[in-house]
Design a protein that fits this description.
434 Repressor (Amino-terminal Domain), elongated, mainly alpha, 2 domains
Length: 149
Amino acid sequence: MSEYLSVARQIQILFEAIPHPEGRPYTIREVSEQIDVSLAAISQMRSGRIKNPQLNTLRELCRFFGVPLRYFDTRTPEECYAILQARDEAPPPVLNEIAYRATRLSPASQRDVLTLIQWVQAAEQQRGQDENLPPLPHLETAQDLADDE
């Protein structure tokens, strides 16, 4: 059985492959400030001084970079990049929820939801062409309604 890729190399790939919203690499400080892991710990993992970090530390890094925990179960850089590519191609979680909830609707209700989505798309397109249009309504979710009670 072949060796696993070092945690240092896996973390280095994350920092290289997943840019900050400004298009530059994240700094260790920026990551540390957003998760429950110290700057020193991230630095030591990235340099290879910490070779076997705690599971919670890996979970925090996965949450920040939006990768599954299995990312740290890779043996080659190619496997890391394959997981990152799948992450980039995956639909946002909200789309998964929409699809899941729609499967439980009747066919007529599914068509109604599709019509509603098409209406919102058309409204967004119009908004891009005419800045004087009123904003789209913020529809309350079931959770919003429960919070108000």
